[in-house]
Amino acid sequence: MIDALTQVDLVRCAELEAQLFAGDSPWPLAGFVAELRAEHNRYFAARDGDVLVGYAGVSVLGPVGDRECEVHTIAVDLAYQGHGHGRALMDALLAVADAENAAVFLEVRTDNAPAVALYERNGFTVAGTRRNYYQPSGADAYTMVRSPRGERLEQEDRP
């Protein structure tokens, strides 16, 4: 089930973050609190019953009619990966962007093949590489972009 992330969920988010991103400066609890409070952000929770198994967030930036979105995070507990939670969270993020007819940007580790594949299945393409983006590991990141809904529909209508 996907619903809104709440203040009550944030301790669990910080725990998952520490497990999943230990080598790359995981967000602390205070980071999640600030992200959830920011008016331009939308955060979602993936749940298995009452258990928070994943979370994702996107920002909506720019003036109305000329929006861009940026995926801030998407993460799923290792024990729950491969069961569609990441895909469902991505669907929620992209619904926000599509409602704004906004392009979507994100960074992903170049060595995270499952995440890159998920993004590519959802219409993202690699726009560039950021060397040593993740710290302290020094891992590189792809910058990926997905065109606004209107542009994608125009491309589908072309012969």
From TrEMBL:
What CDD domains does the entry give? NAT_SF
Database matches in InterPro entries: AcTrfase_RimI/Ard1 (IPR006464), Acyl_CoA_acyltransferase (IPR016181), GNAT_dom (IPR000182), MshD_Acetyltransferase (IPR050276)
Q: What positions does the domain N-acetyltransferase occupy?
A: 1-149
Gene Ontology MF: a single term: protein-N-terminal-alanine acetyltransferase activity
Task: Provide the alphabetized UniProt keywords.
Answer: Acyltransferase, Transferase
The EC designation for this entry is 2.3.1.267
Which top EC class is given?
transferase
Q: Does the keyword Transferase apply?
A: yes
Q: What is this protein called?
A: Ribosomal-protein-alanine N-acetyltransferase
Its source organism is Gordonia humi
Q: What is the lineage of its organism?
A: Bacteria, Bacillati, Actinomycetota, Actinomycetes, Mycobacteriales
